[in-house]
Give the backbone structure.
Amino acid sequence: MFDGRRKFDICVAPSRKRSGMGISMRKRLKLWACIAVAGMLSAGCGNKTEITEKPVETENPVEAEEPVTDDQTPDDTTSDQEPVNVQEQETENHCQITGGQVALVIDVGSAMDGGFNQAALNGAQTYAEAADISYSYYSAGEDTPESYEKAVLTAIENDAALVICAGSHFEQAVGQLQEEYGDVYFLLLDGVPRDPEGDETGIASNVHCITYQEEEAGYLAGYMAVLDGYTRLGFIGGEQLPAVERYGYGYLQGIDAAAEVMDNRDDISVEYWYAGTFMADREIEEVSSEWYEAGTEVIFTCGGSLYQSVLKSAEPCGGRLIGVDVDQSDVSGLFLTSAMKGIDSSVIDALDEFFANGRSWPKGIAGNVVSYGAKEKCVRLPVQAAAWRFQTATMKDYLEVLAGLKSGGIQVSDDIDMQPETTVSVIYHEQEEDLCKPEK
């Protein structure tokens, strides 16, 4: 990320006291890992670490997955496969079919989803290569609490020392297993442990949680879109989960703030909808098609592979999209920008803490939550030449807003208990409504 002084910055954890034990190892591993991930970030998504996916030989083999291209929109949103390791990587990547010192468990989506899952995998792989450790990764067979728990148990049974749980779908699994498996360590991304009723539980000392200030990333995307001259905007979130809501509500706050600067509140309107799925879906395509046809210029696609459906409807009319979690500019030239939150580099930092402390969470993060935002150099928009697609808004405009977020001069509410107050028009669509269907 450009800040006027350095070519790029990577996400760093909030300051905390470190023990004297293992300092040299920490510095050595962090240096290797930082060099590796910085190379990926500066090069852009088009040059991310390549991961070769192969089918795993099991009793019920999992078919090899191919990266999804622009013209592929999978119809299946669920899978009846057992939660097993998804794919095998090349041996030089330190990846094992099962086992490994580190195991990443993901939801029913692909590990190569071009978003959250792939960013988590990139972080694990980057650190594994730098630190010479082994890793594996697994996916849940179905979108159910039982399947997510079974995926974690599979990793534990295969002797993982640390299980990285990618996403809030694993909150209940970690809540259920953290005490029972006290000798196993967990890194929970995007959530905190919960009980079967969905209430927060205590965080055991073998668990470390990372959350992100998505509201700041959403704010940046919304602000810059309006500053660039867009007045008809949309937001399509996947499931109505806290991270998705924070993205969306931050997006609205950024739109509203930029409208005040541009003095065009009366010209701006926002369509807002949670689709109820992170997968590509026919209804998402129909909804986004109607929005684009009615004049919507850009849609923030917030979650998993649902962007594939929006992209399909955007292509005939030249509609624009905003990506999420990672830089998605290489997917299509129709992506205006992406709201990013430093998933891969936060995973690297956590793994470094774990292994430098003798394969355990050090005091200060054991049993605690660390939140990453603009201040920690995690929240940002892509600024590489190929990804910078704003025509009117300038780099100076962007850096000024980013600096305001870092310093606290710009405050973005993370309250998701109520919709943010805005002076621009926001049309909230209910998920259960049969809306926006094209006329026959």
Notes: The radius of gyration is 21 Å. The first strand starts at residue 54 and ends at 55.
